Amino acid sequence: MNIVKALEAAQSENPHGVDARGLHSTEHVQVTMITLKPGEGLKLHLTPVDAFFYVLEGTGKVEIGGEVQEIVKDMLIDSPARIPHRLFNESDADFRFLVVKTPRQADATRLL
Hints:
mainly beta; five-stranded antiparallel β-sheet
């Protein structure tokens, strides 16, 4: 059995310069928790695999393929492979979400 305390997991280096913590990784799936402070956001990018985002805390915005929507706690957002996307925080509180990629990403994310 492996139990991970998400908020105590080590931060991972990432091209977005935000708080990202790897929680789970196998050949089939990769799970990362990201916390965006007020004013922070992911850079517009492409990933080579399908992903979904699950909002754990706060309010943020997601842009996928040029469409922008406000998202809140307990929403799940599908993000298909190779479609430009980003999440950002325009609120005055932390915005925390899970990123689940299937299968685990082997090729690098491409910033736009």
